[in-house]
Amino acid sequence: MSQDLGVRLLDRAGLASAAEQAQLLAPQMKALSDSNRLHLLLLLAEGSRSVRELTELSGMSQTLVSHHLTPLREQGLVTVTPRGRSNVYALCCEALAGPVRLLATLAALTPEGADACCVD
């Protein structure tokens, strides 16, 4: 698969070991390990949204949406901008949208997902 996702990779030379890299990555991966959080990230990959919009689109309660946005925000995966009486959430950077969409494609139980994952 040779799709350029526009993502800047970490300079591995600056890290001591694979164990150190894993230590740095584990908190973000933990934040992503919930299907509701991934659902919210997929919605945010389409564009910025208020909690109300995320509630309507996801079918989750406002409390549950806020609960799941907290670890994503704490790990720097999403940002929040106050707008009037509501908050607008967005992915931390546009570079995260490509990998999030790619993960959704790979996970899909479709021929496209299998092709994306298993190309020689």
Q: Keywords for this structure?
A:
mainly alpha, disordered N terminus, 56% helix, 120 residues, globular
Please, could you describe this protein's structure?
- The protein has 120 residues and is mainly alpha-helical.
- 56% of the residues lie in helices and 12% in strands.
- It has 6 helices and 3 strands.
- A 3-stranded antiparallel beta sheet has the order 1-3-2.
- A hairpin with a 2-residue loop joins strand 2 and strand 3.
- Helix 5 packs across helix 6.
Topology:
Elements: H1 18-31, H2 35-45, E1 49-50, H3 51-58, H4 62-74, E2 78-83, E3 86-91, H5 94-107, H6 111-117
Helix pairs in contact: 2-5, 5-6
Brief characterization of the structure:
The chain has 6 helices and 3 strands. By secondary structure, it is mainly alpha-helical.
Q: What shape does the CA trace take?
A: globular
Give the ordered list of helices and strands. Answer: HHEHHEEHH
Overall residue-averaged pLDDT value: 79
Tell me the Rg in angstroms.
16 Å
Q: Please give the share of residues in helix.
A: 55-70%
Major sheet: arrangement of strands: 1-3-2
Number of strands: 3
Structural class label: mainly alpha
Largest sheet: 3 strands, antiparallel
